[in-house]
TrEMBL record, chains A, B, C, D:
PROSITE patterns: PHOSPHOFRUCTOKINASE (PS00433). It is found in: Cytoplasm. Mg(2+) binds at E103. Substrate binds at T125, I126, D127, R162, M169, G170, R171, E222, K266, H272, V273, Q274, R275. One of its GO terms (biological process) is canonical glycolysis. Keywords: ATP-binding, Cytoplasm, Glycolysis, Kinase, Magnesium, Metal-binding, Nucleotide-binding, Transferase. GO terms for cellular component: 6-phosphofructokinase complex. This is ATP-dependent 6-phosphofructokinase.
Length: 341, 341, 341, 341
């Protein structure tokens, strides 16, 4: 078999581990050939690819980023790919394509599969918001990085009597905020799934100070937002080129708390450190298993499917199921955390 | 409700997170009282306990060890406890006991429950070998510590052309070796579940050297053993008091490889660093969820059960199911790893 | 002897290690008594203190923050302390005061010493900008945290062809930016000591892209600033309460580069994670040595001095020397880094 | 100029950072050429080398090991090199050789320099035992790894009432044991510089248990040894091939304590994890500075010297001074640690 692999979308620790695993399984397990397309679907369309042998993937298991590069995909060019998939496969001698990516990439993968192209997807998102799989690789690393930051902030908050607001990633789903908030012991957690009222956070902080715990750490997902009418955001950032940009919920909430509490409240915006660098052991293992099963799926002809974790097993699910609904934090998980506002 | 909690058995990162979670949920969620018995079942029998309020569990979420202490349990004294459970509960005003522990502790918990005592168990083992739950807390930390060690050893092995044998924990089940071996990219993995032949490892190393990869890292569970007749262990360690002790499979295998390969092979025995210290974010979250659900189970009267992770949910399973069979690494998980010998 | 200890100023990993070391050396080495004032000089003036025995400092060596608390000091109240130092010492039975703090604290310490009070200072700053000592504890931890962030960002920048601007602490001296920039391999470093021209950074990035290295990471101290006339900052942040605040050099520079390069440039502001949490081994050792030597200095009657690292030795220097000039990054250190703009 | 670089001796985190820095400074700062000899002096003699340009050293700053490889040097072949240095330099067009290594390598470097070869040395040892420099790179990483292990062991020791003996590297000098023991808060530290009496350790542990601190962690350098007549080692390890090997001081001491205390005492031998893997920020910076200054020294014609850290400066010292005396832990440093036995 001749297998093509590509990575698309934003960065996610574990991408290289999937690539390595695909190559190992394909070459050592089946005697296949593997080629890697550069910069995601662009490389597929523009004919930029390279052969991936064991040496090409040596030493990349623990490395962040992706050796294949990745760019955001243009939708129009994807239709072009779907229409010409036979030619593309012919040109590269491709028997199957394994795209590794998030919601956008898997939607694209489905489009190609629907057109008839032999495709097996591997889901990837640090946000953990793909509903067809229990977890995605990259998520554990993001939670770990965010938790380490909260750990560090907590000692400062406690000994210096500070209120701190940590903004973590998660635009549409609050998994990173939920889990890093739980792991770090945040006193308040704000999620996109449940609009919060800043007055409740103010009450929580004041109750803490009243009983002698003169600090608080609040963990807020970048996509969290206040309930209608409870708080506004000002003009945000007005930069030197006159552009206005959203101030960010972390900063806005810190301003709001500072004003209402009459105490200093500091925002910390973790940003891209959550999506780069060495993957955790957990993510390397999950990524490696996904790569292995993607190759097996290809050999079984299970096209139009993607790998998914269910309990302790890696299974295959139809791409159609994977991208229909976003996996958001359910009420019962919020209950367990105790501190979701 | 008045809830008693205790920790028993060997150390396991996340124990404090469970204790904290039990206290938080019981006090804040239900207005319960919580007492903690010291040094496991000993404290229960000897009347050594203390009240656990919010202050008592402040700051312990990320701390290794257990604030309650733990000692190995004596079986005869446990029968004493089972026979007198009514008196014990009466003396402490106890409505439910939540023992946190491994196979031995859960067996004891079951014995107490069978005698009629209201008990809800929380499973704990770094070895991940309890069959009724997908995972146990402590395991992720152990795998993480072992993986970081393998990462470090690999760079030395590669640049200095060395063969290295890393021995990790796992007497009866090879989960730590399997997962840290996969995450660290070990070239060979030996598990208790499958006796290995040193000749196969020798062949693997020689094949690597032949194609220019002049190093190898082998990850071996402490309970792994060679197939009958393939290798012996010598006298082992003969210490200054004349005691003979098992040399350990890691050391024995390194000696064997050195002799057969004619190349230096170094053993590294990770030992107790795998079971202490700050738990990973993953383990803190799982431990916190287990504590929360144990309190809920107590309030529902679900005695004789323990908490368990199934997929993304924490459920309850009968203690009877928990301790009948050891969860060992199945064949299909070995296949995925590619490098199990 | 009866020794008073206090911590003042911003957070700094290693404060607890100094407190512990003072107590260990004073009690075990000399049979002294130690009391700790709460919340810095405030506790001294308000009579809030507690006795510190071995149990009080058990387990704090590796903990961030300070068990004594810290608040910013009010200058007028300090004059009050200087004027009444005899009464204060009398009231507490104090033979010597050991204040641990940064430039402001050491200036206060000097004022007290000049008034006649027996004082031995211990310098503390994550910024490493105190000229009388080779290094201060807290700095190594700050550099380590910043370096880990740059490591993570670099893999993302590389595989996703990004320009990233990391803002680290350092208002008046650029040591953290210099060293984390060197350790992380930043392609550009901007320091308060040398105004930069954004055009030079643009040229560097373009040169990199031209030779196929399609990413760049720039490390900028929060106190770095552009040369006069080369760039402005806009209105900055305009929050919901109408306050205008400085946008921050990291964000401003990212905007500037994005505009001039026509490529996305992302800012990451590390903030307070650099000053909290578990200290590195280096900082724990330096802090421990400082505490030990402060007690020895007290016993030698070397008042009006502070501890300082010179080469491999911990010595004493007059407080007068410590606070006269800020230690800034010299030209030759910038040369070594190669990438300072 | 045409510069040759090589790495020799055991592994040491930071080797790659030196190589990278030499290449960066030589190419970007001076327009030089750099070649790297493979496997230490062997590559020099056998003509195995490769050209090192910017791409060759891209991404290696934070990587453990050495991209050039390293083997232990054979003394007879070195004399061969010294005798033929003119031919070797002629053959490679070499203007200067920069060997990076420990005591053995620097002695070899001195021999070559004495013969007239243009040589600039860079000192390297995780043991920190080279007297002409305040510190060497690799040492901070080793101390950090050992400290993290002690941190982990301490929580287990405390909650499970254990005595633990951690053996760290350091055959002739006890720097790693001293500093990791201080940073980890070990209750006893044993160094090669001061023979210990196990009876003193027994007394310390018993005193701790008597006052309720029912655990102890002892940090012992691999080269530490008991005072004459205080303890013996037994036969050690007798392996399956009948070889007797030293049991190791960590294991022997644990056996001794267990026997004398009547309590379980567990040894943990950290081994090679201390010398591999990602270097700390501190070590990357020192290594980078050493590389930079080695190239400058070459251009100044300061042959027969090596780089050295003195206070905050990197200077040059004659190779003759570097290798005459081993830097051992002095009495005053032991006093500061309080717990050296």
């Amino acid at each position: 078999m001749r297998i093509g692999v590509l990575t698309a979308g934003g960065d996610c620790p574990g991408l290289n581990a999937v690539i390595r695993s695909v190559v190992h399984r394909a070459l050592a397990g089946h005697g296949d050939e593997v080629i890697g397309f550069e910069d995601g679907f662009k490389g597929l369309l523009d004919g930029r690819y390279r052969s991936l042998d064991l040496n090409a993937v040596s030493g990349i298991l623990a490395r962040g980023g992706t050796i294949l590069g990745s760019t955001r995909l243009e939708r129009t060019r994807l239709h072009e790919a779907a229409d010409n998939w036979r030619q593309l496969c012919g040109a590269y001698g491709l028997d199957v394509l394994i795209p590794i990516g998030g919601e956008g990439t898997l939607t694209a993968a489905r489009m190609l599969a629907d057109a008839g192209m032999p495709v097996v997807g591997v889901p990837k998102t640090i946000d953990n918001d793909i509903s067809a799989t229990d977890r995605t690789f990259g998520f554990d690393t993001a939670v770990t990085v965010a938790t380490e930051a909260i750990d560090r902030l907590k000692t400062t908050a406690e000994s210096h009597q500070r209120v701190m607001v940590v903004e973590v990633m998660g635009r549409h789903a609050g998994w990173i905020a939920l889990e890093s908030g739980m792991a770090g012991g945040a006193h308040g957690i704000c999620l996109p799934e449940r609009p919060f009222d800043p007055a409740d956070l103010v009450a929580m902080v004041e109750e803490r100070f009243a009983r002698g715990k003169k600090f608080a750490v609040i963990c807020v997902a970048e996509g969290a937002h206040p309930a209608a009418g409870t708080m506004d955001y000002g003009k945000g950032i007005v930069d030197q080129y006159g552009h206005e940009r959203f101030i960010g919920i972390g900063t806005a909430l810190a301003v709001e708390l500072e004003q209402r509490l009459g105490k200093e409240a500091k925002p910390v915006i973790l940003g891209h450190v959550q999506r780069g660098g060495v993957p955790t052991a957990y993510d390397r293992i999950l990524a490696t298993r996904f790569g292995w099963h993607a190759v097996e799926a290809a050999h079984k002809g299970a096209f139009g499917h993607m790998t998914a974790l269910h309990g302790t097993s890696v299974d295959l699910v139809p791409l159609a199921d994977a991208v229909t609904t976003l996996k958001r934090v359910p009420e019962n998980r919020m209950d367990e955390a105790e501190s979701v506002f």
